[in-house]
Amino acid sequence: MTIEPTNLARLSMSLPADLFRQLDVMVEERGLPSRSQLIAELIRHALVDHEARTRPEDLLAGTITLVYRADRGRVRQQLAQTQAEYLKEVISSQHVFLEEDQSLEVLLVQGPAARLKEMCDALRGIRGVQQLQLVTTTALLPQLHEQDGEEGARAVPPARSRTKGGAVA
Predict the structure, then answer these.
(1) Reduced to 3 states, what is the DSSP secondary structure of residue 102?
(2) Distance between CA 3 and CA 89 in Å, rounded?
(3) Exposed e or buried b for every residue in 70-86, given b needs 16+ CB within 10 A?
(4) 123: part of which helix (H) or strand (E)?
(5) Contact yes or no for 128/95 (Cβ under 8 A)
(6) Among 153, 155, 133, 129, residue whose Cα is nearest residue 142
(7) Is 79 in a helix, a strand, or coil?
(8) Pick from 82, 87, 84, 134: which is nearest to 113 by CA?
(9) Residue 151 reports pLDDT greater than 80
(10) Which residues contact residue 30 at a Cβ distance below 8 angstroms, ignoring those fewer than 6 apart?
(11) Of 25, 90, 102, 138, which has fewest CB within 10 angstroms of its CB?
């Protein structure tokens, strides 16, 4: 088996000695094979963040992770109502109960960066929400299905279309 060479570019950089030591500690604690892998990950995060701020109309996929106290009256109902207002952006959600009447919810989302930020602000504004974090990527989910006459609907890619019996073609 032949392994094709990867397109790599070298980067040489200088860091303050203390920052360099902290970087090495982080590489070791994460069990990464090299500084390069960690630096590439950090750069990818910074690029997605930059894109979300400079091109708010660009589509992003990601997750919104929420921790909230369920003892606050109508928190779950308000969260559900808010998610319904962003129905096109929320792909799915997962909920688990935590200790001390807390809940953890993870939303799989996709949409314009500005719309995802707007949704996070709306969710964050619900009384009882203790933590909220949006993690995004520029890689998108494949379109899922197509509806007649609906612009922007998700369509099944040809290689993954379903046959009449439900099998993947």
Answers:
(1) strand
(2) 39
(3) beeeebbebbeebbeeb
(4) helix 113-124
(5) no
(6) 155
(7) helix
(8) 134
(9) no
(10) 38
(11) 25
Please give the single-letter amino acid code of residue 17: A
> Which is it for the CA torsion 86, 104, 101, 69, positive or negative?
negative
Distance between CA atoms of residues 160 and 73, nearest Å:
44
In the chain, count H helices and then E strands.
4, 4
pLDDT exceeds cutoff 60 at 83: yes
Query: How many residues make up the chain in this entry?
Result: 169
Rg (CA), the chain: 21
| The one-letter amino acid at 14 | S
139 pLDDT band, cuts 50/70/90, is confident
CB 136 within 8 A of CB 93: no
Task: Please answer whether residues 61 and 113 qualify as being in contact, where contact means their C-beta atoms are separated by less than 8 angstroms.
Answer: no
User: What domains does the chain contain, in order, with CATH numbers?
Assistant: 17-54 (1.10.1220), 59-137 (3.30.70.1150)
At 52, is the pLDDT very low, low, confident or very high (cuts 50, 70, 90)?
confident
The token pair at 145 is: 């299905």
Q: What are phi and psi of 114, to 5 degrees?
A: -65, -40
Q: If you write DSSP's letter for every residue of 1-69 in order, what string do you get?
A: -PPPPP----------HHHHHHHHHHHHHHT-S-HHHHHHHHHHHHHHHHHHHH-TTSEEEEEEEEEEE
